[in-house]
Amino acid sequence: MKYRCLFTPAKIGTLNIKNRCIMAPMSTALSNPDGTVTDALIAYFDQRARGGVGLILTEYAFVSESGRSSDHQISVADDSKIPGLKKLADAMHADGVPIGLQLQHGGRRSMIRLVSSSPIAMSKDQDTPYALTTEEVYSLEKDFVVAAVRAQKSGYDLVEIHCAHGYLLNDFVSPHTNRRTDEFGGGTTGRAKIVTDIIKEIKRVCGKEYPVSVRMSAEEMVEDGDKKRDSACMAQLFEDAGADLINVSCGINGVGYGIAPAARETGHNADAAEEISRVVDIAVAVAGRINEPEYAEAILRAGKARFVTIGRALFADPEFMNKAEDGRETEIAPCIGCLQRCYGHYGHGDGTFRSCTVNPFAMRETKLVIKPAVSAKKIVVVGAGPAGLEASWIAAKRGHNVIMYEKNDYIGGQFATAAVPPHKQLLARAISYYRIMCEKYGVKIHYNTEATKKLILSDNPDTVILATGGTPIVPRIPGIDDANVMYGQQILHGTKVRGNRVLIIGGGAQGAETADYLSEYGYSVTIIEMRDGIALDDPEATRNLLLERFVKYNVKSMVGTTVKRIYKDGADYENNGTSGSERGYDQIVLAIGVKSYNPLAEQLKGSVKELITLGDAEKARDGVDAIYKGAVTGVNI
Predict the structure, then answer these.
(1) What is the number of domains present in the chain?
(2) Are residues 102 and 145 in the same domain?
(3) 167 classed as catalytic
(4) What digits encode the pLDDT tens for the residues 164-216?
């Protein structure tokens, strides 16, 4: 495809940008605990700079210690941070890419002290924040301006004022949170004053030519919050104050969907950006699930924005832009919108770091590196699930000879099943990506082949990787053998259920997604789940949208409920010591999870030089961990 807009140079104020892609500011949690820049953070940005983006915006940097929002967040709160910040800026300039520092104060999302424009809590579970006095607001403005000076001294080409996602400046510009009666409240001009003051003062002290961006939640997605028409109105004030870029996002994290799961539509902020673009002459950028270069090009051709701000797609593939320019779109590792690894994990206390499900190398750039193998091995991989596929293409890229056996006529394992429910189709794209990478590096995949000890040994392998997956858990519940039950996997692979009324036993991820799938077709569905909620392991944003669909399609949930006996048409249960019965169903479905399936491990023990077990075959686990372990194996084998 010819990207006539995406790869056309443009300007932000006086700053030249080689293409229309801005890397979105996204927390990596890679800074030191004191907020200083680390080599790991520089390596992370370095890969994205080399990957072809036009401008990099750092994750949020707190302008005062009281504004810190998360562990391992970048600090620009004092002059001692300048050397590390300069080292990062210099590295990006060595790559030929300009970099901007995003300036932020946590406000109601601060770790230190909850403050806001008005004493309005973010949720019922949060303490009421302290409302800043007028004098304290003017002091806050100085914190932002001094931080901008530090950024300029450190070599940053631009600063961005974080005025979105429920942080402190967002609280001032939003009618949802601003009930002030001083000069920082009232109508649009009053609510915008803190931001316009900061812009004007940065331009005064850093120079009129120094570019300033403002990130806005154009649609706050909360009751009585800013809508796109309000944000367009306010953007005019920011332009008049001297802003050079309006960077459009949405939502209040934790309340709205500022970080959007797969169930949010692609490019969901594009219309808001277009409305802002109509009323300002400065550049407008737009973020929000712009995960494919073809869609980025469409936004630009339509004139909805001058730039696209690409975020989690660059977690998934730092080479996004280079691959698009080279016509290698099918080799782009896709963001699947799962939020499983890229959201949360701000602290490192439990050994869990931020990363990406599809790309475990993200934020591990100094720890997980693909290097040529010292000596080539012959490797047999049994099972083409995500763990086996990830290990295979990486090992093959390193120079190993990899043979893969898959008993089905398709690859993907549990991902192939999980790709069927509503809003999960991006998992199929991930499987396709793994297949393409295997083909590119010469992995020989044998479909419809049940691997046996004899077959494996006939290849004379140096290493055997067993990634044979799992099988459904069958609970020992009285009556189960006579109930003619089906399993969630069967349904998601196309087996038709009997009748119309379906009782699903198990409300974890698979049970909930099976219910989602059936209810969309019009089946009457009830879920029984032992835990106190449905899909509790899903990220909150994903789960909230799932439950909204359950309301829409009248899916009934019985939580905190234990099944005591199963019948062909229902089940007896117990809930808080009370017994009951659900009957009159046409089909009973089990979706309790999977257990390891690995018959070859014992058979091959002592018969091969090296034996490795991955994924569910080793231990029933989620896709995040399976793919990560696959990557580690591929790198180290």
Answers:
(1) 3
(2) yes
(3) yes
(4) 999 999 999 999 999 999 999 999 999 999 999 999 999 999 999 999 999 99
